[in-house]
Amino acid sequence: MRRLLIAGALAVLMIVPQTNALAEEAEFTPAQLKQIRKMFEEWSKQQKMDEPMGGGMPAGAPPAPPSQGSEMPSMGDTTKAQPRYGVDFSGGSGLQGGRTIYAKPFVKVPKTIIGGYIDFSLTRCQGGARDCRETLEFDQERFVPFFYSQVTDRLSVAAELEIEHGGPQSNQSDGDVKIEFATIDYRFSDWFNLRSGVILVPMGRFNLVHDSPLNDLPLRPMVSRSILPSTFAESGLGFFGTVYPTQLSKIDYEFYVTNGFDGRNGQLRDANGTRGSRGSLSRDRNENKAIVSRISVSPVLGVEVAGSVHHGQWNDEADVYNGEEHNLTLLAVDGNLQRGPFEIQGEAAWADIEGAGIYTTVEGEVSRQDADDSNRRTVLEERGSRYEVPQSMFGYYVQLNYHFMPQAITRAFPSYFGQDSTFTGIVRWGEADTNTDSDFNPNDEERLTLGINFRPIEDSVIKFAYTFNQIGPTLLNDKYNPGRTANGFQFNLSTYF
Amino acid sequence: MGQHVVLSLFLVVSTTGCAVFSDAPPLTVKTSCSPEQAWEAALAGVSQLKIDDKDKEKGTITTEWAVMESGQLAGVFQRDANRERARFFLVLDRLRDAVIISVRQAREYFSPMGVQSQSTRWRRMSPLAKEERRVIQQVSNRLKEDGCAILP
């Protein structure tokens, strides 16, 4: 009897862990179990392949041609990648991240990625420019957490929350917290998808790639601050997609309807460019929706040209009742060419504004955003002040990049310079004129920037640049309206994390 | 003045860009076998991928996009968040006494990191020659199995 009890207890002890294991296994769906088996088989196969060949292969020898009966193309076998398991080879246009159970999401919430970027700068421009002050100063410019969630194979959510200069509760309350974009995408096919939310306005190329770690210079192009006010986001709804006319070509399009600009009470003026008149994300004050669209054509790999337009009313309802509906139309063209280590990119933008003239601000409490892009806030306008709404604005930039990585440095300091490390030399020339009809506009800017940066990996960058700035009238040697220079340097560290 | 310079530069770059920046020629294999055998071999070359479109008369095969993890890891934490997708185009050219099968890959990249998840999402990148070579090799293997000669 006692023997039976002991045997029974042993049997229970042996079975219970198995039962737990089965219970754990039962948490996987059949598809997941199949995936796990497939992963294990691939892993076993890889282990065998990784075993050193007899005699070894001399370093630098060309790879042997595949033998007859070699395996089918192992998609995703990129040159940089180690084999990754849990890769799903399904067709279709959906992002498969949600399906790959071992896709290592950033946090333990399946299908959701949480990351961000940070950038920090040190700048000084003698005389001071809009985006580079006169004093030598450290600036915790941006801390931007972002979220990406693949809710289903077709539905995704993405957002960036920007905390600038330490946020509004920082020591001097001179920071900012705002949504950069927050969109819900529903994908039907490559050529037609819906998007709604706070949309990154597709005006020009820079606004769509404005994250600091993606850019090679510390300061943004002036045209992308004054004329196309990056970061430019609006509440709206629309669709986007891609068509492939030929094997080598690609056409991307985006079309959205948004709340549009709000240029009332001095927000749209030559001193601000269009920057101060970016509209509310919650209200359409003039009940007139704006339309925005961008079409980008890439005839072959390495070449992309695009055109974009934004059209809508900028003044308020009261003016409409008076029969004065004034529209603001932005037009932009941009291009990007890449060939080997060279890259040339540029962007040009025009603003055509109806209702140009001299205005006076309304007294009382008004919403105000400073020209240097500090906080939008409500201020008391004790008496009206005069300002000018220009008829047109224009700006552009052209930038040449050269990517290089001396092999001698890589060999000498392998722990600092990996295979993804690269240096980039940059030259950028740009102009922004917020009132093209005036030769005396003190807000004209011309800037030559020389820069160099180092990327230890693609997503992290250390930048240094020197800018030569000319601000104010440049065409006339007018002693009453002299231009001024504001040369200086910028240092910036930024990285995705 | 500045506007005219910019417009001129844009027009010059956009029109000459295509001429200067042409893609590399596709990988090819030339065989003496019949068009029927070449067609079957071409299909065999991409048999493990879903076919999006095929036209035997025109001699074209296009596979669907296959999505995979990217070799480019994301952020300083080097996470597996980025994706790539690729598809193949196979074209059969019938000559008088031979058939040329050409293979070209289109490849795109997606990153959920910040603004890269926006716009139209997928961005073009260079095809992987290694994968194109493997498809060509698979087609060649099938041709040899069928007793076809591979011509130089």
Characterize the biggest β-sheet of chain A: 16 strands, antiparallel, barrel
Question: Which blocks of ≥5 consecutive residues of chain B have pLDDT under 50?
Answer: none
Q: What portion of the residues of chain A fall into strands of 2 or more residues?
A: 35-45%
Q: What is the total tally of β strands of chain A?
A: 21
The DSSP helix count of chain A reads 5
- Based on CA atoms alone, the radius of gyration of chain B comes out at 20 Å
Greatest chain-chain interface? A-B, 92 and 69 residues
Please report which band the strand proportion of chain B falls in: under 5%, 5-15%, 15-25%, 25-35%, 35-45% or over 45%. 25-35%
Give the strand order, joined by hyphens, for the main sheet of chain A: 1-2-3-4-5-6-7-8-9-10-11-16-17-18-19-21
So what's the oligomer here?
heterodimer
Average predicted confidence as pLDDT of chain B = 88
What do you see in this structure?
- The complex is a heterodimer of chains A (497) and B (152).
- Chain A has 497 residues and is mostly beta strands.
- Chain A is built from 5 helices and 21 strands.
- In chain A, a hairpin with a 6-residue loop joins strand 6 and strand 7.
- Chain B is α+β, with helices and mostly antiparallel strands.
- In chain B, strands 1, 2, 3, 4, 5, 6, 7 and 8 form an 8-stranded antiparallel sheet that branches.
- In chain B, helix 2 crosses helix 3.
- Chain B is globular, with a radius of gyration of 20 Å.
- Chain B starts with a helix and ends with a strand.
- Chains A and B meet through strand 1, strand 2, strand 3, strand 4 and strand 6 of A and helix 1, strand 4, strand 5, strand 6 and helix 3 of B.
